[in-house]
Design brief:
Layout (H helix, E strand, L loop, with lengths): L3 E4 L4 E5 L5 H18 L4 H17 L1 H12 L3 H25 L3 E2 L10 E8 L2 E5 L7 H13 L2 E5 L5 H13 L7 E3 L7 H6 L3 E7 L2 H13 L3 E5 L4 E5 L5 H13 L9 E7 H16 L19 H16 L3 E4 L14 E4 L6 H4 L6 E7 L2 H9 L8 E3 L3 H10 L6 E2 L18 E2 L4 H6 L2 E8 L1
Parallel strand pairs: 5-6, 5-8, 6-7, 8-9, 10-11, 10-15, 11-14, 13-14, 15-16
Antiparallel strand pairs: 1-2, 3-4, 4-18, 9-17, 12-13
Helix pairs in contact: 2-4, 2-5, 2-6, 3-4, 3-6, 4-5, 9-10
């Protein structure tokens, strides 16, 4: 895939970029190695000062970088601004909390292990390669970079090839904020070159956010070199609505979750599993709200849903819908690609999905919702867990027994009760099954790329 900005609103190539040569990659690896020698020896206070300065820099440039995000991947301008500001919040969070998260863990009674003192300490590992996607071009990177740098690690970014301007912005952002040269930098390389970088002896670990096939590939390469990997892969999150739910409130957030970021979010609700007692009410409201969404140019402040980010992504989305419709499902709204330029796909709700349809098991990365009617909690759970994915999940109920049942039994990295899934700096984030392993954010995220070293003293 060429490294280029192709505007999904028009389908036109805005800018093309030349990939880094092997010599340029080597120069950046050398610089990164030197940066680790400097950064890991600095204090948390110094890193926090630089991190806050970087956050302030990002906040001052929010309008500029928001336009780049919108041009490169099609999210609405308001969504792009919010993403940039969320990144700054994450930077400030780790600047304030990194030292506490990585404080020594002292054994209260060292004599129990025959020592005069015993403790475990967290130490940075070194250079970590981040292989990142286009759907949240800033947030996905910063939620790794902020804790990594605050821990004293070094970040190398291999970004998606369709967001090169965002990648190059990130290439200099942390250095401009005060971090040592090479503490965080971008490699403009294709997917074929990732293997060589992971296997380089100076790279100690890798983190990837992306598709299941990409995760399998990176995990295999990292495993071959016995290197730590964190994977955040796809999701097909269930959105369960039980009879006691506030149905209008559930519908409002069902629409937001399914169409936010133009429907291109791993943690978006994708499968709407509704109890028969409230199904008709939910269905009517859901269809009405989805049909009323304004689709158009993401630069227009009135637009609510922009284009799908890539031509191939829209083609894949349409193939899933067409397969379901061809096997007997019904499109309650949307369901067909519109004519005209750009890679638009309308907000869509599909009803009558069966196991024979690809839509039953595969992830829909666009504004397409699957709607299921169920008779009880057990049937809802069976459909919710009847997928290989396990990223997050949503449950709408005011019944305490149902809350306990679903929060205990749902196979996912998170359960959000009476709300949509959101990633917060304060809470660990990640999945199970083919949605990946390891955690980002909170204390768990910063500890992923640290050596927890035991110190025993007699």
């Amino acid at each position: 895939m060429a490294i280029a900005t192709v505007n999904p609103t028009t389908g036109l190539t805005e800018r093309s970029f030349t990939a880094h040569t092997p010599e340029e990659v080597e120069t950046r690896l050398v610089t990164a190695s030197r940066a680790f020698e400097t950064l890991h020896a600095t204090t948390f206070a110094q890193r926090a000062e630089w991190m806050i300065a970087t956050a302030e820099l990002l906040e001052s440039e929010v309008e500029m970088i928001a336009r780049i995000l919108t041009i490169e991947m099609g999210k609405t301008l308001a969504s792009a601004r919010a993403e940039a500001l969320k990144c700054a919040k994450n930077m400030r969070f780790y600047a304030a909390n990194a030292e506490g998260f990585l404080a020594d863990e002292v054994l209260d009674d060292p004599s129990s292990v025959g020592a005069s003192s015993a403790r475990a300490i967290y130490q940075p590992l070194g250079i970590v390669l981040a292989v990142m996607p286009w759907n949240y071009p800033l947030w996905q990177v910063i939620r790794f970079a902020a804790p990594a740098l605050m821990a004293g690690n070094i970040g190398l970014l291999k970004h998606a090839s369709n967001v090169p301007q965002t990648a190059l912005y990130l290439d200099t952002l942390f250095t401009r904020g005060g971090f040592p040269e090479g503490a965080f930098s971008t490699l403009l390389i294709g997917s074929a070159e990732v293997k060589t970088v992971i296997e380089d002896r100076r790279v100690v670990a890798v983190t990837l956010t992306g598709s299941e096939p990409a995760g399998r590939s990176v995990a295999s390469i990292a495993g071959g070199s016995i290197k730590k990997a964190v994977l955040e892969l796809g999701g097909s999150d269930p959105f369960i609505v039980m009879p006691s739910a506030d149905v209008p409130a559930a519908v409002a957030l069902a629409v937001t979750s399914r169409t936010g970021n133009n429907g291109q979010s791993c943690i978006a609700a994708k499968r709407f599993i509704v109890h028969s007692d409230v199904y008709d009410e939910f269905r009517e409201l859901f269809v009405s709200r989805m049909a009323a969404l304004r689709v158009g140019d993401p630069m227009d402040p009135d637009t609510e849903v922009g284009p799908v980010s890539t031509e191939g992504g829209r083609r894949d989305l349409a193939a899933l819908v067409d397969d379901a419709l061809g096997k007997g499902a019904t499109a309650l709204v949307g369901g067909a690609m519109p004519p005209g330029p750009g890679w638009f796909y309308p907000p869509t709700i599909i009803e009558g999905i069966t196991r024979e349809m690809r839509l039953y098991l595969e992830e829909t990365f666009g504004p397409v919702a699957s709607l299921y009617r169920v008779a009880d909690a057990a049937e809802a759970l069976a459909i919710a867990n009847g997928t290989d994915f396990g990223l997050s999940s949503n449950v709408w109920t005011t019944d305490e027994g149902e809350r306990a049942y679903f929060t205990r039994e749902l196979q996912a990295g998170a359960v959000f009760v009476n709300d949509m899934t959101i990633s917060y700096p304060e809470l660990p984030f990640g999945g199970i099954k083919v949605s990946g392993y390891g955690r980002e954010l909170a204390a768990a995220g910063i500890r992923e790329f640290c050596n927890l070293k035991t110190i025993w003293e007699g």
